[in-house]
């Protein structure tokens, strides 16, 4: 009972201090149970436990007419749980009340009108958005972009007044011209896809969709023939696969430029990505749900939902979302299998995960290069280097040109040979990779570090590391390597400067900490050296051989001292 009283006092104090209190009825009218449920819902929402948040909010609905922020929290949670229609209905019920006066309420009502093709109603709602909400840059962009889209749908022409939202405006106008079947659609897609400021390869998929809609099959094939599965996006891989397998009708099943809901859905997906880039994940997921509401056919965006759930360790829900991908979506189905294997690795062990993905891979007839590449990476990450080499070789043998794809494959196979101590083959592959791409900082670093470990071509290795460092001077692995190189040539002061920074960037890496301790010992800072070695002994990722070496170092120091 005493704990409940303390909880009520704490909640009351928090609400009393809130500037929102002036809009609400006195909290003395509420029970501590309702307030407790409400605040539990807020905490769950902040922790991205949306199902729990919704349950808490639903059990404290008495607050809906008495505490203005409650409706906003409930609506947000409903949208995050993909209950958008229910959220819109709640806003309509409370339309005349102050508690419905929040930015997302206007967006939801406008989108609902757009979805139902009530363009004038959508414009009316958007015109009523209060100026105070539009002071936020993102809100301003969203409102004005939606107004622009709605006007295109209404007047069937692109506005002469351009919005100055950078590449976002270019993307929007490209889709608007695609919707209108404007004669300059090809030009706009070309400008977008070939933009040097960012990677907009995602939009090649939508250009393919447009070409297929116009029955320009040969033009679409000409594009996909230039693409290699290994180094293109998941979405674009799916589009290429459909064209390669003559399944062109699949495009219109998920997206059409002729459907205004589809192109607004893609705009909302872009807004979701913008919020994600600012680490505003709740808003990102909110607009991702709205994108799905506008175009539920475009199931491929669920890959982002599944990935976010996986990163938040919500593995069961991630698996549930992954079920949206079937075998006809061959690349997304493969993505599903890979993610399921990763979940097995997290919840059980790596061996089970590898067995799972390997068994699924064996059932695929004529797997493409991307699938082979992925299974090779699984084996490499599981330290089954011989099998990884077998699969990497299958792809390398198919690629004739000295492309960046081949350079990357040679790097991966060379790294696998190096782990097996087959140094002649390792050097051959890594040098071949550098012959294609001589400035690849990571290949330079890998080969140089391997040479340092073998006490082989030390001077040349240092030159390679300095070249790598010029390009990637914030990469902790490269910083560690160059620091270790200076250690090996007895330049301990310079080595300490690099290794100290590497430890700051990667404090939980056992090898980096071990290297730093070795240098501290050489500088006669033995107490500090023992501290860092002791830290390595507590690290879960430290390998058994390293742990045994460090136990000896704690007594006698490095062997070469």
What does this structure look like?
- It is a single chain.
- Among the domains are: 2-155, Tetratricopeptide repeat domain (Serine Threonine Protein Phosphatase 5, Tetratricopeptide repeat, Alpha Horseshoe); 182-256, no CATH class.
- 70% of the residues lie in helices and 0% in strands.
- The protein has 32 helices and no strands.
- α2 (32-46) packs antiparallel against α3 (50-58).
- The longest helix is centred in the N-terminal third of the chain and has 19 residues, at 137-155.
Q: What is the element layout, followed by pairings?
A:
Layout: H1 2-17, H2 32-46, H3 50-58, H4 69-80, H5 84-93, H6 103-115, H7 119-127, H8 131-134, H9 137-155, H10 167-180, H11 185-193, H12 202-213, H13 217-224, H14 234-244, H15 249-254, H16 260-277, H17 281-294, H18 302-311, H19 315-322, H20 330-347, H21 350-362, H22 369-381, H23 385-396, H24 404-419, H25 423-436, H26 441-453, H27 458-471, H28 476-488, H29 492-505, H30 510-522, H31 526-537, H32 544-556
Helix pairs in contact: 1-2, 2-3, 3-4, 4-5, 5-6, 6-7, 7-9, 10-11, 10-16, 11-12, 12-13, 12-14, 14-20, 16-17, 18-19, 18-20, 20-21, 21-22, 22-23, 23-24, 24-25, 25-26, 26-27, 26-28, 27-28, 28-29, 29-30, 30-31, 31-32
Mean pLDDT: 86
> Helical content, roughly?
over 70%
Q: Could you please say which CATH topology of the domain at 2-155 applies here? A: Serine Threonine Protein Phosphatase 5, Tetratricopeptide repeat
**Shape from CA axes?**
globular
Major sheet summary line: none
Q: Tell me how many strands there are.
A: 0
Query: Could you name the ranges where pLDDT drops below 50 across 5 or more consecutive residues?
Result: 1-45, 59-67
Q: Give the C-level CATH assignment of the domain at 2-155.
A: Mainly Alpha
CATH-defined architecture of the domain at 2-155: Alpha Horseshoe
Number of H- or I-type helical stretches: 32
Structural class: mainly alpha
Distance between the termini: 66 Å
Beta fraction of the residues? under 5%
Radius of gyration: 29 Å
The CATH superfamily of the domain at 2-155 appears as: Tetratricopeptide repeat domain
């Amino acid at each position: 009972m005493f704990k409940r009283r303390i909880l009520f006092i704490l909640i009351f104090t928090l609400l009393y201090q809130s500037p929102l209190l002036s809009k609400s009825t006195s909290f003395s009218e509420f029970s501590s149970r309702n307030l407790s449920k409400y605040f539990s819902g807020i905490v769950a929402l902040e922790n991205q436990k949306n199902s729990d948040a919704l349950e808490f909010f639903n059990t404290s609905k008495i607050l809906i007419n008495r505490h203005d922020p409650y409706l906003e929290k409930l609506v947000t949670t409903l949208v995050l749980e993909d209950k958008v229609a229910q959220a819109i209905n709640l806003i309509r019920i409370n339309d005349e009340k102050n508690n419905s006066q929040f930015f997302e309420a206007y967006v939801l009502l406008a989108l609902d009108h757009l979805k139902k093709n009530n363009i004038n109603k959508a414009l009316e709602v958007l015109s009523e958005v209060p100026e105070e909400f539009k002071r936020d840059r993102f809100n301003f962009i969203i409102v004005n972009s939606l107004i622009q889209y709605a006007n295109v749908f209404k007047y069937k022409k692109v506005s002469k007044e351009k919005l100055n939202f950078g590449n976002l405006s270019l993307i929007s106008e490209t889709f608007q011209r695609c919707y209108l079947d404007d004669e300059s659609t090809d030009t706009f897609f070309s400008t977008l896809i070939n933009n040097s400021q960012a990677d907009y390869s995602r939009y090649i998929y939508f250009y393919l969709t447009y070409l297929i809609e116009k029955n320009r099959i040969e033009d679409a094939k000409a594009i996909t023939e230039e693409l290699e599965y290994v180094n293109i996006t998941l979405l674009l891989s799916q589009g290429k696969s459909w064209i390669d397998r003559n399944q062109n009708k699949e495009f219109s099943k998920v997206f059409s430029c002729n459907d205004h809901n589809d192109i607004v859905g893609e705009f909302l997906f872009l807004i979701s990505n913008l919020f994600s880039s600012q680490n505003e994940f709740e808003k990102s997921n909110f607009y991702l749900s709205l994108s799905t509401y506008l175009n539920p056919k475009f199931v491929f965006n669920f890959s982002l939902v599944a990935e976010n759930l996986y990163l938040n360790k919500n593995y069961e829900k991630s698996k549930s979302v992954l079920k949206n991908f079937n075998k006809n979506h061959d690349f997304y189905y493969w993505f599903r299998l890979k993610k399921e294997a990763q979940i097995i690795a997290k919840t059980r062990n790596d061996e089970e995960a590898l067995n799972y993905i390997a068994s699924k891979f064996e059932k695929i007839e004529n797997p493409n290069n991307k699938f082979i590449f992925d299974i090779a990476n699984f084996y490499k990450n599981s330290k089954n280097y011989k099998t990884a080499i077998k699969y990497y070789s299958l792809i390398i043998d198919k690629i004739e040109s000295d492309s960046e794809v081949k350079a990357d494959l040679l790097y991966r196979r060379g790294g696998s040979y190096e782990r097996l101590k087959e140094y002649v083959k390792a050097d051959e592959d890594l040098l071949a990779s550098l012959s294609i791409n001589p400035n690849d900082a990571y290949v330079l670093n890998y080969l140089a570090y391997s040479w340092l470990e073998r006490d082989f071509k030390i001077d040349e290795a240092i030159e390679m590391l300095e070249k790598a460092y010029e390009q990637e001077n914030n990469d902790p692995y490269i910083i560690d390597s160059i620091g270790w190189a200076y250690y090996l040539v007895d330049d301990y002061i310079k080595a300490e400067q690099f290794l100290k920074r590497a430890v700051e960037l990667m404090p939980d890496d056992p090898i980096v900490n071990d290297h730093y301790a070795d240098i501290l010992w050489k500088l006669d800072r033995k107490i500090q050296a023992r501290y860092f070695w002791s830290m390595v002994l507590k690290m879960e990722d430290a390998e058994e051989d390293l742990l045994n070496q460090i136990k000896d170092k704690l007594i006698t120091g490095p062997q070469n001292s």
